[in-house]
Design brief:
- With 345 residues, the chain is an alpha+beta fold.
- The chain is built from 10 helices and 12 strands.
- The chain has helices at residues 2-22, 24-29, 41-74, 93-122, 236-247, 257-265, 268-271, 305-313, 315-318, 331-341, and strands at residues 131-138, 141-146, 151-154, 156-160, 170-176, 181-184, 192-194, 200-204, 210-216, 228-234, 295-296, 301-302.
- The longest helix is centred in the first third of the chain and has 34 residues, at 41-74.
Amino acid sequence: MQTRHAQRLIRRSSASACLFLASPMLIAQGTTPSTLAPASTPAHQIFDLSVFVVTITGGIFLVVGGLLAVALYRFRARKTDPLGEPAQIYGSTQIELAWTVIPVLIVVVLFLTTARIIFAIQDAPKPKTALDVTVIGHQFWWEFRYPKYGIVTANELHIPVSSDAAPAATFLKLTSADVNHSFWIPQLAGKTDLIANHVNTMWMDPQKPGLYLGQCAQFCGSQHAMMLLRVYVETREDFDHWVKEQKELTQNNPSAAAGRLVFEQTACINCHAVNGTVGNGRFGPDLTHLMSRDTLGSGALMNSAEGLRAWIKSPEQFKPGVLMPAMNLNDGDLDKLVAYLSTLK
């Protein structure tokens, strides 16, 4: 039984990796998250530290490799060498001190430099104008809460851009609803774990508007590879506009009333919430402004009416091991539900 279970997990993980590599979303973006293109203060500090470490270790490699190459060439075997064992050298106090003291000094320098960067990031003072966001990791999606604005959304984080004229830092409180996760946007900050019943913190102050990609960086289950996230860094005007839209209540669309009835009379409301309806579930993403997001299933596929229909009909097809079950709706009810959800903008 254990062997068969392990084989199923391997197959699911392999399928997840293939879906991750072939995801239309990632192909369309044409970009790869990289720590070599930092776009916020913590990321710049981590990048500078990595350059310093690579410089030191690269220098060590060149020195050791050079001495090894010289020794191999200079003391290579020659036809004119006398037969027998060569002369033996038994120790050198100067050499032994050198290869003991120098490595210790190098390790101390690397340790102190790393500790300085860690404390500089962790102990950075929080500005009074900072944006607070609570991040909750779920299998296998992200929940974002903005306490100041009363906004709850999923998988796509919106934050304002920072500049010298208008500094805007975003401070995140990180926790988990189930297993351990790790929040990582390579261009904006380092990895930080999300642990159940424990709060970790991190911050970022991106200096350039745009889309930044990240994902869970700690194995959290069969769909770990598809627990993606998107961070939209926006100008203050665009961010305020997004906040205004997210705070608006959903409008009752008479043409989608039948679909709302399907939503409220099925198991959807056990896991999902939509403001203004009886749906107040918290096991799945809040759907109040579902169609304002670019992706479904934490990056499993692009968000559209067609994608939404396919996702509801068979989420396992796009994300093997996903905790959302297939709803098994008939085509008529499925069309009505999709029509209703498509109005949630």
